[in-house]
Design a protein that fits this description.
This protein has 371 residues and is α/β, with parallel strands linked by helices. It is 44% helix and 16% strand. The longest helix is centred in the first third of the chain and has 18 residues, at 66-83.
Amino acid sequence: MRRSLVITDSRVWNAETEYALSVARAEAEIGVTVEVAAAPGSPAAVRIADPIGLVELPGPAPSRSPADFLANVRTISEAVGRLAVDVVHSSSSTAHLVAALAAGSRARVVHLRGSAAEPSGRALNRYLYRRMTDAVVVSSSRVEDWVVERLGVRPDRVRRILAPVPDVFFKVGEGDDALRAELGLGAGVPIVLNVARLAPVKGHDVLLEAMRGVLEEVPDAVLMLVGEPWSGQPAALEARARELGMERSVVFAGRREDVPRLLAASTVCVSSSIGSEENSRAVGEYMASGRPVVATRVGVIPELVIDGLTGVLVPPSDPEAMARGIRTVLTDRAIARRMGVEGKRVAEERFSLSAFRRGLLSVIEGVEGDR
C-alpha cells in the first residue's frame, strides 16, 4: 500500500493550505495511507479527520527560527522512516526545504504550489526545485510558467491540477424559495451572488460600482455579498452602497455555511477579484452548481471560465465591463441557461474530485516509475 506525508506548516487558513489538504483527502480516497504534518492547533490540524493521521510539527516558526526549522526536519525525518513513507508533499517554501532534507533518498518529494506567491529565483531555490524535488504540482498555468521559466524545472516534471470542487456543489438544484423568503426577496427577484471574504483584493468596491450600472437596466436585481468581515468591512462597503443610493439593492449576508442553498437561489454568480485567485474556489463552485459566471481575468480564472461559453470574462477593476457582463446574463435567459449547463459540464471534466484524484494518481505513479 502506498503511503504519503503532506507537510503544511502554515498557521493560517489560505489557498495554499486548502490545496494541500485537498491533496491529502484525495489521496486517502484512492487508497493511499496519508498523514498530515501540521502545527498543533493550526487550521490544517483541526480540519484533519479519519482516516488521515496527524504528525505534530514541534517548531512553531520554522521560517524565522533555525531551531524550529531543525526540529521540524528531525520530526519529518523520523516520520518518513517510522511510517515507511513513499511520497512526501510540501506546501510552502519552508516546508519544501524541510521535506527535501528530511526525505533524502528514502522517499520521493512532490512539492505543491497552490499559492499566488512568485517563487524566488535564487540559486539555492533553483537547486532545491531542480535537484532535490521529484515533481511539482501546481494549481494554475501562471504558477506552472514560474516554476519552468524562473526555476528551470523540466516541463515534464511539472503537473497542473486544478483545485477540486466538493461533490455537494454538483448537486445544487434550481431555486430555493424558502431562502428567498428568509432574506425578504421575492420569487422573481434576480440575485447577483458574490462569495468571497470582504478583503480589498476581492474587488467589492468595483462590484458595487458595476451594480449601479446593472440597476439602470434591471432595477429589481439584488446583489448578495457573502463572506466573512475583513479589513474594516462590511462597514465601508455599506457606506458606499448608501452613497450610491442602492442600499436596498445590496444584501450583506456575512459568512454563511449554506453556500449551496445560496447558489440554488442565485441568477448569476460574480467574481470581482483584482488579484490573486490561483485556486478561485468560488468560481469552481459557481460552475459546478450550473450557474452562469461573470468574472475578472485574474489568476486561474481564465483557465476555469471559457469566455462566451461558460460565462463572461472582464478586465479587473473595470465596473462598466462587469456591469455589461452581468446585464447580458440577467436579460437573456437563453444565454444564462446555456452558460450554466456548459459550465457544469466543464467543471465535471476538469475540476471535480474524480478529476483531481486521477491527476494525483498520475503524479504518484510517475514519480514511482522514476525510481
